[in-house]
Every structure is written in structure tokens, then in C-alpha cells.
Amino acid sequence: MLRFTILGPVSIRHGDAEAEIGGRQPRVVLALLLSAAGSSVSVSEIVDTLWEEDPPLSAVNVVHRFIGMLRRVIEPDLPVRTAGNYIVRSAAGYRLRADAQTLDLLRFRALAGQARQTVEPDGAIRLYAEALRLWQGPSAAGLETVSRIHPAFLAIDAECSLVAREAADLALRHGLLTPVIPALRRAARLSPLDEALQARLVLALAADGRQSEAMATFHAVRRRLDDELGIDPSPELLDAYERLLHQRALPPSAPADRPSVPMQLPADHPFFSGRAAELVRARALLGEDQRQARPIVALAIDGMPGVGKTTFAVHLGHQLTADYPDGQLYADLRGFSDEGAAMAPAEALRGFLASLGVPLSDLPPELHALAGLYRSILANRRMLILLDNCRDYDQVRHLLPSTPGSLAIVTSRTRLTGLISSGSGQPLPLDLPDRDEARTFLARRLGGERVTIDHVAVDTIVDRSGRLPLALALVAARAAMAPGTPLAEIAAELAPAQDFVGFGPASATHLRAVFSWSYRALTAEAARLFRLLPLHPGPDLTVLSAGALAGVDTRTGAHLLGELTSHLMVQDSDGRYQVHGLLRAYAEYLSERHDAPAQRRAATLRVFAYYQHSAHAAHLRLDPQLPEPVPAPADVTPLQFRTQDEAMAWFTAERQALTDVVRTRMDDARGLAWRTALTMQDFLHSSGRTPDWVDIAHAGLDAATLDGDVGGQARLLRSRAGALFMLRDFGGALRHLRRARRIVESVGDDAQLAAIDINAAYVRGAQRRYADAVGHGEHALAAYRRLGDVRNQAAALRVIAANIAGEGRRDEAVRLLREALTLSNSVDDTRGAGHCWDLLGTIHRQVGDRRSAVVHWHRAAANYRRAGAPAARAAVLLAIGDLHEQSGDRGAGRAAWIEARAALGDSAGPLARVVQSRLVVNAPLTLDPHWFGTAPS
């Protein structure tokens, strides 16, 4: 059956097979036709959309050619110069014949119309939910910027938002919230600035008992409106917030807050076939598991590279999801990636815990503590965990559930004997598919008729692909893109290779022949980028980093990646590109033979420079304390960031690539390495990756030492001291600071000396050596005054005030904090101002002035919100709630606790558990002052 989609990515599907539409411009033409939903689109509108201004003289002819291409994609057997049954010519242009069975937009409209006419609320809600499930993303997703500015696509998105609001109103009126909340969440993500829709999501979540998520949603929208539009929430959104605070939106029997339910399982392969015996074996093992005295908690799938382990594991996972209703977790452990690229167990645990709702600021630094928290959260849940590309048992043993309610599926190239011998795992080896399974796969991908006609050629393809699923998939993609090419011709191109050096098992010896076909189909520019891919740091790449690697502009880089995606790469849902390990090895094989060492080195330096300069730009949004780097090369375009959230998200996505840059052994990249290490400091600190911070600072220090840069050495010694301080290794921190001081004194850098004094003041204060700490702070203050550095004058005053207060001299501490606050406000240091208000509130609380303490803490919370410091804000709101409760105003106390819980999201961390305990039992707590909550930087 033929189907078209526009509610998300544009596509044409013949049954289960997605047709290859071609490049960007034909996709834009198709998107315009689909958006019209059967109405005519003029040729002039198509021309204006494709070229915007200055179209070529041949523009109309090009449009006609694209129409002809689309007709043949829709109807592959259509003769040349034949109109066909779907795209028809009208007086001024073209229209596409479609109905509710073939076009998702028309089906969406039909379902919404039926819902509006259905009297019975349950039935109407079901119809609304079914309609909203069709909305898979912004209309014509992937065709930005056209899809974000063209009125037709904007109107479709607005129409979908309207239907989502109608569904929410009906659900709220009748209390039928559960069926529509997933659709409302997705709709709200797709229309982040639709305040009416966001208000309904807040009300729906609150009415369904999800107060914490509702609160978090409101504050996220408020920040987005402030950051992107510079406006306050609308009266409708504020009313929803007020209803939430006073529980006017909640039914009397609203359930308690529900835990976060991650759904991370990758999409199932649309052409999966075969593996029936292995699927039966898995089910049998799990059936036996339920009768065992010691049930298994893991299935260990092993097999050669390219045999389809990940595809099989994902398919099995989708079959099992109903048995694990509390969600799925997924991690690519990169166990067999390039040296040093494997994911550490602690990093995987941090990602899982964040997905389970634990704020990064609440994560403990030690591996065993992370594992204990993870297992505690899993103990009362039934979850599916997919651990892909595992190196060995040590990499996964801390990631396995400890109770039989959850199941881990682990894939590896090697047999995980430690997992199996422990008794908690069962082996599920995956061999090459047999010939019948290979033929079935090709039939599903290419259609049974085509495979039957050329059955001899199919057998040749199966044999010359070595029955390896990766190779079969590449050949099938080639055949699908050339529907008119006989399979015998494609089989002839797969002449057996003599060897396949460095590519593992003998059964894969024909892979080079398969890969070489895809490589030969590339243009020269795309082939060059493919050969350079192994030089790219990290497990994946983006358009910008690919452009830097190839030394081309962003548009060209996107075009080349699009070409590679058609042949040798995949693009994930986050817009990042990945290449299979075998293809990466093949690319390296080619590059060593075709690219000169100087060219390879230049490409590496370009992409390293892209990461270093982008990381510096991201750092500026977190804590701008580093000097400007040397200018970026002319052929490198670093990223720029508007908000702290953008910067943190980028650091999270690129952490492995940045780590690879820091750890490079290239002599002429040492400067890039240590400068990148410095830019990562605030991200690693804020995200709770303190052990990684120690390692990155150490690697950066080695690079700066080899580079001979004493300023870099001093800064990295200070950075490592900060990490050790956070681990409460005060002796180690002081040793690093003394080394840094000796270096800085030798070059006479007063600013660095002052920074070292600030660092030492924090460490001495934590040791309760208040007099020493005050001395260091005063030295720093004098230096910053000479240098005219207002921001750091305020920082020095805060640390002096903290230690004076520790000695009991509170009036003097208040005076210094008022001075620091004035300085911080003068340079728009919002976080620093928040810290001042926080400390002032703590002092007022200590002397019994509760009213002043609450006033000051509210100001601190407002500053922390604007500065993007959720944990600090939550701690202040918790203290406010405690004081209100102690004063007898339980309503105000509960409101503050609810807001604190929302600031942390659906967290299971220590601070979140304290806040949650208030909401359950109203137990009071006296917080310690926040004197030493920030690492020296």
C-alpha cells in the first residue's frame, strides 16, 4: 500500500519499504504537494520556495524534472513522460491525489473531525489520541529552514497544536487524562512557545497527580519565554500555575507523583526478518527464568562484527516492552571503538540516573555509590535495559539490575563469560543467518516479485555478501535506489574479493567488495570525507564538525553527509551521524592508501580546532573566566551558544569527542588539547562528573607541560585542585595550588596569583582554618582591585565574608556581602548575586530573623533561576519552606517545597528525597550554611 507522510519527516512508503526520494530539492517539492493535501500548488510557488531569490533561467524546467522524478518514485514502473495516477497537472501547477488512507495529514484531519462529532467522551478521547500519534515532528522536518518559515508548514503545525488543545480541554472536563498525556507532552515539545498548549499540559499533569512534572513544565516554559522572546508568561499560563500551587486543578483522589518513565529503546528496524530460532530461544530462557530459584537478569548476545547483534537486540526489546512497563534505558558502550573511546561504567550510570530523574548535581562521584543509587531505583521497577557494544563483563557488571523484576540485554563481539558464570546471565549467541533468512530479508526490502524474478542473482548476492547482514543491507540499499537495475547486474558488481585485511573473521572476507561498491558510488568530495571519518574524535559527528574535518563550509558539509547517509552512514533522531565500526575500518584502510600524511594531519587539526573553539564559546555561557584563544582557522566555523542550557546540552553530547581531543598524542595538537581541557572544567563540575574532571585536568596538564606553556600549566593545576577539593582531598588540592603558585610567581601574573588565593581560601575555609582563609581572600581582593576586575572582587568579598561569619563576626560579614552584591549586580553576575543573597539569608536565619531570611532567600532563588542553577535554587526553596512550616504557615511552606521539587525535576537524589519527605510528612530540617558549596575555579 502506498502512503505519504508530512506530519514529521517527508516520506513515501510502498508497504513497509521507504522509497528513496533523492536530494533536498525534490523533497521540498514533495513537501509542498503534500501540504496542499490534494489542492493545486503553482509552479511559481515551487520556484520561489526552492530558490527564494534569483532563480536560474532553467528553474521551471528543473521543477518539471523533479515532478517526473517524484512520479517514478511513487510509481516505479511508470514509463518515461507519463503522468501517472498521483501527481497530476492543473492549470497553473500540480496537485497530488491523496486521501485519508494514503496521507497522514488527511487521516489526522479525519480523526480530529470524528472526535469533535463523537458524543461519548471516552470514544472522542481515543480518536484525539490516535490523531495526535500521527504528529511525529514539525511538518516537513529535515527541510529546515524552509519548513520553519513557509506558511503552509507553519499552518499545519498550528492546526496540530489546536487539536492537541481541544483534546486537553475534553480530557480535563471529563477526567480522562491518562490516554492523552503522552500526546500532550509530544505536542508541547513540538510547540514550545504555544502558551495555551503549555498551560493545558500543566493542568493535565497536575490533575493526573504529576505535580512535580507540572511544576517543572511551567518553569521550563517561563525560562524559554524569557530567553527566546524576553516576555513573561501569559495570564492563561500564570492561571494554570496558580491552580497548581493551590491544587485547584486536582481531583480529590489525585494519585501521588509518579516516577520518571524513560523510553530510550531505538526504533525497530522496518525490514527485520528471520532470527525466529533466536527469538524463541530468548522467550524460552525468560520463561525458564520465572521458574528459577535464582532468576536471570541479563541476556548476553554475542557474535561477529556486522552480524546484526544490535538490530536483533532492539527487535527483541520491542517484543518485550509490554513485560517491562516502567520504561527502557539504552546505552552504546562503545566497547570496540577506537582506543580510549569506550564508555566508562560511571558515565553510563550518570546517564541512566539522569534519565530516571536524578539531577546531575545530586549524583555522587564514586562508581560504587552511583551503582548503589541506580540499583535502589530499579529495585521496585520493571525495566528493560539495553547495553550495546559491551567490551567485557567489568564494563557492565555495575549496570545490571540486582533484582529479577528488570532485564538487561547485553550485546558484545565476545562471549561474556564473567556475566554467564556469575549465574545472572544467559548466553544467546548470534551466528550468520542461513540462506533462506538472507533471501527473506532481501524480499522484504526489495519486494517479493523482484526477488522471485531474479532468484539466481539473489543467491549470488547472498553468497558474495557472505550472508553478513551489514553487507546484505548495503546491497539492498543499492538495489532499492535503482529499482530499474536488474539484480543480476548488481550481483555482477560484487565480484569476490581476494582478501579483507584487518576485518576479522574469515566469514567476512567478501565485505570489501560490498563496501567498495558503495564507495565507488560517491562523488569525489564525499569519498574524501568518508576516508577522513576515522580521524574524527568521538563516536559520532555533526554537520559542523564534518565540515571542519573536510575543510568545507556548512552547506557543503551537510550535502556531503546527506550523500554518505544514502550509502555508508546513518543519522540518528538527534541529527547526529554514525558509521559502523567495519565501515570506519574500511575508511581508514582507504585513507592510508589515498591521503597523504600531511592531508590527514591537517584534517585532524581542523576538527580539533572546531571542538576547542566551540567548547570555548560554550564555556563563556557557564563561567567566562578563560582568556580568549587564538583565532580559529579560516576554514573552521565554531558553534555559538545563546543560553546556558544550550551550552550544557552541547557539552553532554560532545563529551567523548572533547575527551579524545584532550588525550591526543599529536605533537602539533598539544595546545588545542590543554585549552580544551580548561573549557570543560565548569561543565564537568556542574554535571557531577568530578572523577572525569580530575582525569581531564591531569591529561590537559600533561599536554600543557609538553607544549611548554606555563600559563596553561598553572590554570590546569588550579583546575585539578578544584576537582580534588570537591572530592574533599584538601591536602591534594593544596599541593596543586602550591605548584601553581610557584609557576605563576615566576612569570609575575597577578590575576592568576589572585585566583590561586581565592582557591586556597575555599580549601582553608573547608578545613575551618578561618584566619588563613581570610588572609588568602584579602590578598586576592587587593589584587583584583588593582586589576579592576569587578566580578572577582565580589567573589573575594564573598569568601572573606563566609569565613568571617564562621568566626562569628556576622555584622561585618553582612556588610561585606552587601558590597559584594553591589559589585555582582554592576557586572550582571547573576549567579554571584544569588550567592550573596543566599549567604545573607543564612546569616539572618542564624540570628533568628526568619522574615528577613525568607526575603533574602527568595531573592537568591530568583537569581539562581535566571542563572540556571537548579540545585542551589531548590536548596534555598527547601529552607524557605522549612521556615514557613516552623512559623506555622504550612500552606506557604508546602508551596515552597512543591516549587523546590519542580526545580529538581522527577529526581530520586538526596536533596529531592528530602523535599519529597516534606510533601509527605512535613518533617522540618535545618540546613547547613552554603559557605563552601562551590569548587575553586
UniProtKB/TrEMBL annotation:
Keyword DNA-binding included in the entry's annotation: yes
Range of residues in the leader sequence: none
PROSITE patterns hit by this protein: OMPR_PHOB
PANTHER family assigned to the protein according to its UniProt record, in alphabetical order: TRANSCRIPTIONAL REGULATOR REDD, TRANSCRIPTIONAL REGULATOR REDD-RELATED
Domain of life: Bacteria
Name of the protein in question: DNA-binding transcriptional activator of the SARP family
GO biological process terms held by the UniProt record: phosphorelay signal transduction system; regulation of DNA-templated transcription
Keyword Aminoacyl-tRNA synthetase listed: no
Classification lineage: Bacteria, Bacillati, Actinomycetota, Actinomycetes, Cryptosporangiales
Pfam entry (one): BTAD
Family: Belongs to the AfsR/DnrI/RedD regulatory family.
UniProt keywords, alphabetically: DNA-binding, Transcription, Transcription regulation
Regions recorded as binding DNA: 1-98
Domain OmpR/PhoB-type per the UniProt entry, residue ranges: 1-98
An example Gene Ontology molecular-function term: DNA binding
